[in-house]
Write a structure and sequence with these properties.
With about 325 residues, the protein is α/β, with parallel strands linked by helices. The chain contains ten helices and twelve strands.
Length: about 325
C-alpha cells in the first residue's frame, strides 16, 4: 500500500465541500480531512482510521469535527479554529511520513482572522511556519498546455507601489535558489533552465525605463550563472510566455504577483495549480478561492482541484514520499 495525499477541507462555507466528492475522479490515493457533516447530502463517503487501508469507490474521510454547520457562502466564526486545526493535522501527518503530501482546498483569510485571530497572510506563510520557518516560494503551474507554464513571483501579496522596495537582491536570490532546488527534487529536472523577468517594461531597455536591471538584477543573474545555474535574464516580461519562449526554460521567476499569475491563468485558467516550493513535504492547491458567491449552487468546477491532487501525487512519487 502507498501513502495517500491528505486533502484538507478548507473553508466549509466555500466551494470545498461540493468539490470534495468529485476528487475521487483524480484516481490517486487520497483522504479528505474534515467534518463529514459539511459534505453535500448524498455523498458516498467512508470513515478511515488507518491511512494505509482506504475504501474503494467512496470518498475516504479522516474525521475532524467542527463546532458549527456550514451554511454555504456564510462563514461561521466558530468554524475558524477547526479550519486551522485541519491544516495543522495534515502537516503533522506529512511531516511524520504517514501521508505522501497535502493538497489544500481554499481557505478565507478574513474568516480565519475574524474567527480565530489567524495572523498569517495565507496558507503559504502558515505552512512555512509549521515547517519551522523555512524559505518557501509560491509557484503556479499549468497542467494542460504544452509546453507547460511554470511561474514563481518573487514578491506576492503586496501593493504594486511597494514592489520596488520589497524586491531586493536577497529576495530574488532566495526565490531563484529555492525554485532551482525544488525543480530538481520534486519535478525530476536535473538541470533546470530558469528565466528571470525584468521589473521594468522591456527589462529597463538599457536604463531608459528603469535601472534595477542594470544595477543589480543582471549582476545577480551573472553571479548565479558562474555558480553553475542555467539561468537567463533579465528578460522583457511581455515576450516570455508565448509557446516558443516557454520551450526555452523550465520555470520563470517573475518580479511581482500579476506579472507571474496573468500568463498562467490566461493559458490554463481551469488547470492551474499552486505549488509551495521549499517545504519539507509536498503541498499543492487549486488556483482559485472559496467562491462564496456560488457555494452550494452546484456550479463549482472541480478541474483545478483534481489537477492539484494529481500533481501532488506526481511530485510525491518523484520525491519518494508516496
Amino acid at each position: 500500500m502507498t501513502h495517500p495525499i491528505i486533502v484538507t477541507c478548507g473553508e466549509p462555507a466555500g466551494v470545498g465541500p461540493e468539490i470534495a466528492p468529485r476528487l475521487i475522479d483524480a484516481d490517486v490515493p487520497l483522504v479528505w480531512l474534515g467534518d463529514p457533516r459539511h459534505l453535500p447530502d448524498g455523498t458516498d463517503w467512508a470513515e478511515v482510521t488507518d491511512l494505509r487501508s482506504l475504501p474503494n469507490g467512496k470518498l475516504p474521510v479522516l474525521r475532524h469535527d467542527f463546532a458549527a454547520p456550514n451554511p454555504p457562502g456564510k462563514p461561521q466564526p466558530a468554524n475558524a479554529r477547526g479550519v486551522i486545526e485541519v491544516i495543522e493535522r495534515a502537516v503533522s501527518l506529512a511531516m511524520t511520513g504517514d501521508a505522501a503530501g497535502i493538497c489544500t482546498l481554499p481557505i478565507n483569510k478574513k474568516a480565519l482572522k475574524d474567527g480565530a485571530g489567524f495572523p498569517f497572510p495565507g496558507h503559504t506563510e502558515f505552512l512555512a511556519h509549521l515547517a519551522g520557518g523555512v524559505d518557501v516560494v509560491m509557484m503556479l503551474a499549468s497542467t494542460s498546455v504544452d509546453p507547460p507554464c511554470r511561474v514563481v513571483p518573487a514578491t506576492i501579496h503586496i501593493a504594486l507601489a511597494d514592489v520596488p522596495e520589497q524586491l531586493t537582491e536577497q529576495t530574488l536570490d532566495t526565490a531563484i535558489r529555492v525554485t532551482h532546488d525544488a525543480i530538481i527534487r520534486d519535478f525530476g529536472i536535473t538541470e533546470p533552465r530558469i528565466a528571470v523577468a525584468g521589473l521594468n517594461p522591456h527589462a529597463g531597455e538599457g536604463g531608459a525605463m528603469g535601472r534595477e536591471e542594470l544595477e543589480w538584477i543582471a549582476p545577480l543573474i551573472e553571479r548565479l550563472r558562474t555558480e553553475g545555474l542555467r539561468i537567463t535574464g533579465p528578460l522583457p516580461a511581455d515576450t516570455m510566455f508565448h509557446a516558443p519562449a516557454r520551450r526555452r526554460y523550465d520555470v520563470a521567476i517573475c518580479t511581482y504577483h500579476d506579472q507571474a499569475l496573468i500568463p498562467v491563468k490566461t493559458l490554463d485558467f481551469a488547470g492551474g495549480v499552486n505549488v509551495t516550493l521549499g517545504l519539507p513535504f509536498i503541498r499543492t492547491s487549486p488556483d482559485h478561492g472559496t467562491a462564496f458567491d456560488i457555494a452550494g449552487t452546484g456550479q463549482a468546477d472541480a478541474e483545478s482541484a483534481i489537477a492539484a491532487l494529481r500533481m501532488a501525487w506526481e511530485l510525491a512519487r518523484t520525491r519518494g514520499t508516496a
